[in-house]
Amino acid sequence: MEEKNAQATPQLLTDIQFKVSRKGYDPGEVDAFLERLSAAVTQMQDRLRQASATAQDAERRASEAVREAQILQTRVDELESGVVFASAGEDVSPEFEAEQASSVLAMAKRTADAVMNDARTNAAALLSEAETEASNILRDAKEKAIAAVGDLDATRQELSADAAALAAFMDEQRASLSAGLSRIQHVLDDPSALRVGVPPTIQELAALEGDATVAPSSDFPISSTTVIDDATVVDEEPPATAPVRIVGLEEIDPPVPGVSAGAEASDADAEPNEGGQLFGAKDDEVDEAMRKFFDANFDDDDRFGR
Are 8 and 41 in contact (CB under 8 A)? Predict the structure, then answer.
């Protein structure tokens, strides 16, 4: 140690240093012990200071008590002197002194009671005011909370209604888009769905019964407008066929030599015209009528994409 006679203080115990030796105490344990010792010394010093302060306070109060005793003694002496003078001048009865003391005591008691009552009244008023203010604050907070909850609920209902309407609109749009995609996919898979069906040939018509009505195909446009009116087919050897009816067209009977148009023929074995088609290449009038038929506008053209 540098100073053997140094006073043991907490700072000295903390800052003290020892030489390190191979065979000695553990430095960590020594440091920990010194820290505990320093804390204990600090605590003892604090207690000593408190005891010194208490002793000084006691001495001060003793001195004050002595002074007060001296003052009281002086007062007693003065009172005794006054009593002696009063006795010399006029006799005072003990009843008067007792009554005077009782009066002073009663006055002091009334004063104390009044002070206590005022204190209690003020305390009760302050307590009531605080309770009223707290109740008002709590009521306002509850009203604001209820109003906020109502606003939030109304907003939630509005948002729910908007979400439902939006969901319904999206479902409707999805259905519409799905239907449109289905139609487009159907057309892509089967482009012939946009085409008008080929009219039947004479051979196909001759296979039917004499006066049977040919049912239209789903791909064949239907119209009640007369497109061909009294068309006459002229061949070198016109065959005689049974009357044929096509929906949308008036009955067309093949002409027979010596018989007017529209007359029935008895021969049911008819031969087709050139190439086995309904109209020959030379029948300009019939071709023109067919072109008018296919160029005509019908009510159900949209169904076939025309």
Answer: yes
3-state SS class at 53: helix
Distance CA 270, CA 276 (A): 11
Contact 256, 240 (CB under 8 A): yes
pTM over 0.85: no
78: burial class by Cβ within 10 Å (0-12, 13-18, 19+)? exposed
Determine contact, residues 239/254, Cβ cutoff 8 Å: yes
User: Distance between CA 55 and CA 68 in Å, rounded?
Assistant: 20
Q: How confident is the model at residue 229 (pLDDT cuts 50, 70, 90)?
A: very low
| 157 in a structural domain | no
CB proximity list for 9: less than 8 A, separation 6 or greater: 41
| Single-letter amino acid, residue 143 | E
CA angle 289, 295, 300 (to 5 degrees): 120
At 299 the pLDDT is: 57
Whether 48 is covered by a domain: the verdict is yes
Give the pair of three-digit tokens for residue 74: 């002086």
Give domain status of residue 26, yes or no.
yes
Range of the domain at 216: 196-306
Tell me the two tokens of residue 116.
């206590």
* Interior/surface letters 29-67, b for 16+ CB within 10 angstroms, e for the rest: eeeeebeeebeebeeeeeeeeeeeeeeeeeeeeeeeeee
Largest CA distance in the chain: 191
Give the helix/strand (H/E) hosting 126: helix 94-189
